[in-house]
Design a protein that fits this description.
By secondary structure, this protein is of the alpha/beta class. 27% of the residues lie in helices and 20% in strands. The protein has helices spanning 24-27, 30-57, 61-79, 100-108, 177-181, and strands spanning 86-88, 112-118, 125-129, 136-138, 144-146, 156-160, 163-164, 170-171, 190-194, 215-218, 221-225, 231-234. The strands form 3 sheets. The chain has an 8-stranded mixed sheet. Strands 4-5 form a two-stranded antiparallel ribbon. A two-stranded antiparallel ribbon has the order 7-8. A hairpin with a 5-residue loop joins β11 and β12. It is globular and about 45 Å long.
Length: 237
């Protein structure tokens, strides 16, 4: 049977009965289906990210400041002894939890602070040292970055979570750049997702490149997974 060019990119007038039960390889839609699913998930995640950001921005300044203080206390507890450690953080934007006071505290205690920097290609991330008080400049995609920071290898990465689920996956803003950077590191850093409890959703529909966090930190405490896969929340007074 002669194959019609570009037929897999067309649209069906209505869903054929039981098409979902046909082997994709037999139907010729394996590539199309996979690509379309990826597109649909990408669109959903973008919309969900925007929705959750709007929810976060709807919180009062007082509410966010109260929760920021709790998040900082939880983070300080889980970080433990930071002397000699390199902690990669983020500069808060659009109502993200403000952890700048925590960065000042752990810097005094001997931690080196770094911030993620987008490479000129826009395809990879580097982690560059930054000292509290040093000037930051807007880089690509308006990300605030150190001016002349030396590239370092973080022991801990704090990742702002627009959304997160009970499998400790984060819906972030880097387009997967942080997740893709982790597997190629010489050693795996500890990964902490940071967000408000309002950002919890049933699933972020994790993709192949998504990396689960060791902990999710919210104003309510630390969310982690037990070895059997069940969720454990530790509330710290």
């Amino acid at each position: 049977m002669k194959k019609v060019a570009n037929d897999i990119s067309g649209q069906f007038a209505s869903p054929p009965c039981f098409m979902h039960e046909i082997d994709p390889d037999y139907s010729g839609l394996a590539v199309f289906g996979a690509n379309q699913q990826s597109i649909d998930v990408c669109r959903w995640r973008k919309a969900e990210r925007e929705r959750l950001t709007a929810v976060r921005l709807s919180l009062s300044t007082h509410q966010r400041q109260t929760w920021d203080g709790r998040i900082a206390r939880h983070l300080r507890h889980v970080l433990g002894d930071v002397a000699g450690q390199t902690v990669s953080a983020y500069w808060p934007a659009r109502g993200e939890p403000d952890i700048v006071s925590l960065l000042k505290e752990i810097s005094i205690e001997g931690a080196a602070i770094s911030l993620p920097t987008l490479a000129a290609s826009g395809q990879t991330l580097a982690f560059c040292q930054w000292h509290v008080g040093e000037r930051l400049v807007k880089g690509r995609q308006d990300i605030l970055e150190p001016v002349d920071g030396m590239e370092v290898m973080p022991d801990v990465i704090l990742i702002p979570a627009a959304g997160f689920d009970k499998q400790n996956y984060c819906l972030g803003y880097s387009g997967g750049l942080v997740d893709r950077a982790i597997p190629v590191m010489a050693r795996r850093p500890r990964l902490f997702g940071v967000g408000y409890s309002t950002a919890e959703i049933p699933t972020i529909y994790p993709q192949g490149y998504d990396v689960p966090m060791d902990f999710i930190i919210t104003e309510r405490g630390l969310i982690s997974l037990n070895p059997n896969g069940t969720v454990k929340t530790n509330t710290i007074k």
